[in-house]
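go over whats below:
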Amino acid sequence: DQIQIPKDLKTIVLRAQSARTRADKQHWLAQELVQSAAITLVQELNLSRRDAAEILGLSHQRIQQLLD
C-alpha cells in the first residue's frame, strides 16, 4: 500500500529528512573534534582529565571514554 500525502506536506517531510541528515553529519564532526581536543589537552598539554572535562564542558568519565 502506498500512502498519499499532500504535495506541500511531502515538501516538508523531504526538508525534514535533509535537515536530519545534515545534523547527523555535524554531530559526527563535533564528536571527532571533541575527541581530538580531549586527547590534545590530556596527552600533549598534560592537563588532568578533570581539567580537560571542565574546559570542554564534559564529565571526567566522558573524557576517559574519549581517550580509550
Remarks:
- The chain is about 80% helix and 0% strand.
- Helices lie at 7-44, 49-56, 60-67.
- The chain has a mean pLDDT of 96.
